[in-house]
Amino acid sequence: MFKLRKILLFIILLIFVILPLSSLKAVPPQSPVYVLSIDGPIVPVVTDYIESGLQEAEKNGASCIVIELSTPGGLYSTTQKIVTKILNSHIPVVVYVSPAGAWAGSAGTFITLSANVAAMAPGSRIGAAHPVSMEDDSALSDVQRQKLTHDAAAWIRSIAENRGRDPKNAEMAVIESKSFTDTEALNAHLIDFKATNLNDLLKKINGLTVKNFDGTTTTLQTDGPIKYFPMSSAQKFLFAISDPNIAYLLMSAGILGIVLELYHPGAIFPGVAGGISLLLGLYTLGTLNAQLSGMLLVILGLVLLASEAFVVSHGILAVGGITSFVLGSLMLFSGNQMGLTINKGVVFATAFFMAAFVSFLLAAVIKAQKRKVVTGVEGLIGEIGIAVSDINPNGIVLVEGERWQAESKEYIAKGEKVVITAVEGLTVKVEKIKEGGSKKND
Fold first, then answer.
1. SS (H, E, C) 372-433
2. Whether 91 contacts 60, CB under 8 Å
3. Where would you find the membrane-spanning parts of this chain (predicted)?
4. Which of 133, 144, 149, 246 is the most exposed place for a label (fewest CB within 10 A)?
5. Which residues fall within 8 angstroms of residue 136, CB to CB, at 6 or more apart?
6. Which is catalytic among the residues 77, 138, 147, 158?
7. Active site residue 59
């Protein structure tokens, strides 16, 4: 009877415990979703950021990568590099124009349409992708502009066709600089989804099968953990100074620092800080394709302002320097690059501050030049002394504890006060002053 109970207990354990446990399979960990965020102009550092994000996501087996995008546009050459990386990515890329009210303008249009999945938040917009607004074209002829426009139109049609989007509406964004709201973009088959936020987007695309550029397909699994991939500290710094206004202010601060060092040699700090700021500003403006003629005019303004410290021009060099600086500033982005312009208010405010600063330095220099010499022989002129002998016309005077041979055109009695009017060698010329008189030219 006891053995029978053991057998029955073993059978029960086998049916309800051992067999169910043996049938369980190990659940593989869910693949993460990598999220990148771009809020600002499309500049070279953004290419590095996206590339590092794609590499990190692929290394960790991410199911897809989501790029939250809000940009007024940027450089055409940089856009081409980013689109190429997205198209050749081994991991599906989702571009989400967000947050609400964001804009995927100009370069952002190409980037959005190149994604495996394109989505927009409520109130956002996309379009205005004419290449003239993305690159400085002031030196191009009408034929060259037309060629550039048609090339960009063909490129965006190719991207749209391969991603299953409407090539005609995509082309209109280039040829006619047309913009689309989130609803219009969805109806025009330029995007795939409208989503109120990131979580809403991930729910909508979970299980969606997307086509890769090489013809293969991938099914998205977006219910895994979300991993945000921010810019590195160096990338954040470069991205921050890539704003044309910040780059311009850096350059202006650098110019002021160098001018201050030239007016007051040996201060050291203004020169060092100014040199670093100037180089950072010029480097950033160079990466943003600022016009060379504008940069040369700005540098000429610096040279003229600095020259005022060594050449007596009565302010002419300073005025020329400020004028050259302002004209160069206005020319830096005169090609109207979309999202890459310097606020004119910043230009004129900086020019006013610079003019006031240089005027203050010039006033200090002029005041120092007019100040009476108080050292050496010249410092005796205007000093008061006492005649220690009769002066008729020669005699001896005591000035600041020293005896000097003196000469006067008038008779001066011993003990009278005199003022020195000139110095010739070791002889001072003096004049008699009344009791209670003061230094001449004081």
1. CCCCCHHHHCCCEEEECCCECCEEEEEECCEEEEEECCCCECCCCEEEEEEEECCEEEEEEC
2. no
3. 237-260, 292-311, 316-334, 346-366
4. 144
5. 289, 290, 291, 333, 334, 335, 337
6. 147
7. no
Tokens of 350: 């900086």
Digit-coded pLDDT (tens) for 258-275: 888 887 777 889 889 999
pTM (two decimals):
0.71
CA angle 129, 132, 136 (to 5 degrees): 130
Please report, for residues 243, 254, 272, 395, the alpha-carbon distance to residue 275 in angstroms, rounded to integers and kept in the order given.
20, 6, 5, 59
How far is the C-alpha of 69 from the C-alpha of 81, rounded, in Å? 16
Per-residue CA distances from 403 to 58, 230, 429 (Å)? 93, 80, 13
Helix (H) or strand (E) run with residue 103 in it: strand 103-105
Least confident of 173-182, 377-386, 403-412: 377-386
Cα 103 to Cα 72, 180, 338: the distances in Å are 6, 10, 12
Q: How many CB atoms are closer than 10 A to CB 267?
A: 13
> Cα–Cα distance between 422 and 38 in angstroms, integer?
74
pLDDT at 377: 62
Per the annotation, the verdict on 177 as an active-site residue is no
Q: How far is CA 234 from CA 56, 213, 347, in A?
A: 17, 32, 27
- For residue 111, give the nearest of 148, 80, 149, 89 by alpha carbon: 80
Query: In whole angstroms, what is the distance from residue 247 CA to residue 283 CA?
Result: 9
Of 89, 98, 106, 408, the active-site residue reads 106
Name the β-bridge partners of 412.
391
Strands 179-181 and 64-70 come out as unpaired
What is the C-alpha separation between 277 and 253, in angstroms, rounded? 7
CA distance linking residue 338 with residue 163, whole number of Å: 25
d(CA 98, CA 120): 6
Residue for token pair 């996206």 = 50
Tokens of 8: 């029955």
Tens digit of pLDDT for each residue in 415-424? 899 998 888 8
In angstroms, rounded to a whole number, what is the distance separating the alpha carbons of residues 195 and 44?
29
Rounded to whole angstroms, the Cα distance separating 409 from 422 reads 13
All domains in the chain, ordered by first residue: 33-232 (3.90.226.10), 243-370 (no CATH), 383-432 (2.40.50.140)
Pick the closest to residue 66 from 42, 33, 99 (CA basis). Answer: 33
Sequence length of the chain is 442
Instruction: Specify the residue for token string 């003629």.
Output: 293
